[in-house]
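User: I'm designing a mutation panel for SDR family oxidoreductase and want to avoid disrupting the core. Could you give me a predicted structure to guide residue selection? Please restate the sequence first so the numbering is unambiguous.

Assistant: Good idea. Sequence first, for numbering, then the predicted structure tokens:
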Amino acid sequence: MNNSLQGKIVAITGASSGIGEATARLLARSGAFVVLGARRMDRLSAIVADIEREGGKALALELDVQRKEQVQAFVDRTVTQFGRLDVFVNNAGVMLLAPLADRKIDQWERMIDVNIKGVLYGIAAALPVMQKQGSGHVINVSSVAGHKVGPGFTVYCGTKFAVRAISEGFRQEAGPAIRSTIISPGAVTTELPTHISDGPAKDAVNGMYAAAAISADAIANAIHYAISQTPDVDVNEIIIRPTAQE
Ligand code: NDP
């Protein structure tokens, strides 16, 4: 076991699958106490049971990041249970791709609510705790889609550009004792595309992922790297994509 994160308290949103799950498992193996939040409690409980079986320490909390009181309760419960919050990973996200002309306005709103407002609720809950402690680290999961726009990706890209803007503003405002990292993955094999309802958009993304996608463990490794630096080192952004991705 790599113990470089021994005793760090790390709360992760969207930890029931994909990148959040891989990150929780890796950080727990490295000695961190992980708090996993998502809506699917059955999935979270199974992951926590695995972590505990391997000797790690983890807690599952039901969380819908669209509900600001639930995000606040997620942070409050973490602090009550463990006494502090060292790292908050704003990872929960949805990618509901479709052309603008299809006017899937409900899906636009859901992406804005989860991917942008959810991240802001996380910052609102975590920042006061970290300021009081005089230390902390917020990690926001953006995307390569936060760097470039493609047809069908417009609203999703808008949310991920926003995550990068919010993260940079957070870095400047939070002060030198609080670190800020943007994680920008390319194509990663997870459940993310399974929620797309537009047939052609889903086919296009599945084709893209079939051509080149990396595992969620690669993104977990990047998050581990950012967290495990000495406190004076702030890794501001890591872009990780398959070698074959444009
Ligand atoms: P998954 O679909 O596997 O995971 C998404 C996670 O977000 C799940 O745990 C899900 O849990 C959670 N989630 C969704 N909605 C909510 C909500 N309202 N409240 C709380 N949790 C929620 O996909 P990924 O692991 O790929 O996605 C993680 C992040 O990585 C996202 O922000 C995504 O945009 C980003 N990303 C992914 C890429 C990829 O290619 N996979 C590329 C670039 C960025 P539950 O449903 O149980 O609530």
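For picking mutation sites, this is relevant: The CA atoms of residues 134 and 177 lie 6 Å apart. Residues 9-240 form a domain with the Rossmann fold fold (CATH 3.40.50.720).
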